[in-house]
Amino acid sequence: MRRAEGRADGRFSLRQRLQSFRYAGSGIAFMLRTQHNAWIHLACTLVVGALGLALRISAADWRWLLVAMALVWLAELINTAIEFVCDLVSPAHDERVRRAKDLAAGAVLVCALTAAVLGALTLWPRLSALAL
Fold first, then answer.
1. DSSP string, 36-95
2. Are residues 46 and 108 in the same domain?
């Protein structure tokens, strides 16, 4: 079990702040090791990032793309956490647990579809101009 965050005297601790980043990195690594869809999100993130750089999109366009990509990653992380806790609490099949997992997966799908639309709206005009 992890030691409680922060110092016993309540003061700021740089060591504890750095440790919290390690914990977060461990969570992201766990998601990448265990969730196949996370690799799809990673591939899409890299492709969109490369296209954005190659097409020299504006700062405003980058903001939209970064927010969209971050929302997909956030949803996938939360979905993974929900799945992990559900499996821990109820290893046997339970219809309520299945429903919770389906809802969490639905949130990822909504975010991914929204990101795809934002990506298309942002990148398509520049891509189509290259084809002309």
1. HHHHHHHHHHHHHHHHHHHHT--HHHHHHHHHHHHHHHHHHHHHHHHHHHHHHH--S--H
2. yes
Q: How many CA atoms lie within 13 A of 132 on its CB side?
A: 6
Residue 38 is predicted with a pLDDT of 97
**CATH number of domain containing 97:** 1.10.287.3610
Q: Is pLDDT larger for residue 13 or for residue 50?
A: 50
Over residues 78-98, mean pLDDT: 96
Helix (H) or strand (E) holding 21: helix 14-34
What lies within 8 Å, CB to CB, of 35 at 6+ separation is 76, 80
Are 53 and 116 part of one and the same domain? yes
Would you mind telling me the total number of residues written for the chain in this entry? 132
| Domain coverage including residue 66 | 36-131
Catalytic (active site) residue 83 = no
Q: Which helix (H) or strand (E) holds 104?
A: helix 95-131
